[in-house]
Structure formats: C-alpha cells, structure tokens
Amino acid sequence: MLKIKYSILPKSISKLISTSKDTFTILPVEGVNKSYYADSEKFSHILKISFVFSKRIFLEDNIFLEKNDTFADIIFIDNNLSEWFKLQLKNKLKEFEPQIIEVPKAFELFMHCLELIKSEIREFNSDSNKIVSSSSIIHKNVEIGNNVYIGPKTVIYPNVVIYDNVYIGSNVIIHSNSVIGADGFGYTNDITKIPQEGGVVIKDHTEIGACTCIDRATIGYTYIGKNTKIDNLVQIGHNVKIGENCRIAGKSGIAGSARIYHNSIIGAMSGVKDGIKIGPNSILAGASMATKHIPPNQTYAGNPARPFIQHFKEIAKRS
Question: 268-296, pLDDT tens digit by residue?
C-alpha cells in the first residue's frame, strides 16, 4: 500500500489540490479492491491520485473481473491527449466522481511521484506483516517477503520466492522455483528504471506451474483470478490481469497491462502484446502472437493472430 506524506508531492501538482488529508497514494485509474491491502481500513483517510498519459485505460475490468471498490479522488490527465479521448474518458469516469485536472507531461509527474516515494515505501515495508494460514503447507527453502497473506490449504513447493505485497488465496498450488512479485520490466526510452511498487493478487483454487514468474504491478496489483491454471515456464508481466477459469500453457508470455478475461485459453508458446485484451471465452492457439484485441467468444491463431478460419485459409493459399 503506497501511503506517503502528502507534503512531498511536487508543487506543480500540490498547488492544484485542496485537501485536508496529510498522506496520499497512487492508484490505477480502474481502481483497486481494498480488501487485498493490510491497511485497508485506512483507505478513506488517504488522498488517492491517478495519472492518465496514454489511451490504455481498463475501466471494463470492473465488469469482466472483480468489482473494484476504491478509486482515485483526483485524476491528472495529460493535456496532449486528443480532445475526443479526454471527453470520452471524462464521461466514463463520472460514476466514480473524481476531480479531473489536465496537466502537461503527466508521465513525468507520475515518474516524479514514484521516485519520491520509493524510500518511503521501502521503510513502510521494513516492518514484517506476514499472515500464513496454519493449514497451508510451506515446503523447504521458500522465501516470503513482507506484507504477504497466504490463505488456508495453500501449498507452496520448494524454492519458491514470494516478494513483498503479495496476496495468495486459499487452495492455491505454487510449484517449485516460481517467483511471485519480482519487479516488472519497466523502463523509459532513456533506459531509466520505472519503480515497481505495487503487488500481486492470486485468488482461490489457482495453480501456478514450476519456474513461472508473475511480476508485481507498477502501482495497484497484478491479478490472477479464481480457478485459473498456469503451466510451467510462463511469464506474466506487471499489471496484467487474468480472469477466472483461464488456462495458460507453457512457455507463454503475457506482456505488461494485458487483460485476459474469464474462461479464456492461451496455447503453448504464445504471446500477448502489452495492453492487449483477450475477451471472455476466447482462445489464442499455440505459437500465436496477439498484437490486437481479441473479441469475446473467438478463436485466433497465427503471428499476428487473426480469426482461426482466416489464418488457415491464408496458409492453404500459400501451400
């Protein structure tokens, strides 16, 4: 939970805000579910801010995934975005009732805030806050960080590493040598590291294969829904969200901020580009690359992925 003194906000932001709250946190625009945070009862007393500097917005998460219950009080939108996009976004955000402020260079402000709060977050995480159910089974050589919850009847096999800020539900299986919550792969164009200060949420009855990596979010959390099964040697990038009852086969890679909604299947050795959405009940065939959104109830194949029948018609033409 990013809970930082409000006084360290950049003057370019703080002068635009009128608030009596003395601490703030940064949330993704689509919001979060506060039940995954150790200090969830304090949310109402913290100023919550978000930044919009691209068109990659996931408000439909609240329909296709879990209903979030905590949203930003203030959203800073980059004034270089198109007027059409800003109008559409403001209309969609009305139900959350935030204050919306247009600013220049919103990404730079976002980065500045993350840099300012890094040391504060590290200090906050230095106090161990681990809750491990007595009915869970933790095998040898498992490393567990701070601010970690592990629910009942969960099994963690040897040599798993669980970083800070991870929520793992009940009846979860995590196989050997997997890493949960390592830094996401985030860098600016000049190779400056973007701080990765969020967490990971893994819901009930999920299974994570051996040598799989699930990166923590930049802000908010990377999310794996109930009863989803992930094979060995899978990479899940930062801020990815995967719905319920999904299956992801081995050697697949899901790039940052992608969305895979309920009941979908990702075949072996497939890839999903950053920010791409795989609609509910859809299939991405093995050895395919999703470079564009896949609608609900569809099967796509190939590189780049396209509708299944179209893909094989094109193969037939070339043969």
Answer: 999 999 999 999 999 999 999 999 999 99
Q: Report pTM.
A: 0.93
Q: What is the pLDDT of residues 40-89, one digit of tens each?
A: 777 777 888 899 999 989 999 998 899 999 999 999 999 999 999 999 99
- Residue 95 CB neighbour total at 10 angstroms: 10
Structure tokens that stand for 71 in this block = 């949203």
Instruction: Compute the distance between CA of residue 243 and CA of residue 50 in angstroms, rounded to an integer.
Output: 23
At 15 the pLDDT is 63
Domains of the chain: 4-125 (no CATH), 130-318 (2.160.10.10)
| The pLDDT of residue 41 | 74
Six-digit token string for 112: 């500045």
CA distance 146 to 164: 5
CA–CA dist 259, 31 (Å, integer): 15
> Which of 205, 238, 262, 311 is an active site residue?
238
Q: Please, are residues 30 and 68 in contact by the beta-carbon 8 Å criterion? A: yes
- The phi and psi torsions of 223 (rounded to 5 degrees) equal -130, 130
Residue at 138: amino acid letter: I
Task: Band the pLDDT of 221: cuts 50, 70, 90.
Answer: very high
How far apart, in whole angstroms, are the C-alpha atoms of residue 219 and residue 199?
Answer: 7
The reply to whether 262 belongs to the active site is: no
Rounded CA separation 184/210 (Å): 19
Q: How far apart are the first and last CA of the chain?
A: 55
Q: How many CB atoms lie within 10 A of CB 250?
A: 17
What is d(CA 73, CA 71) in angstroms, rounded to the nearest whole number? 7
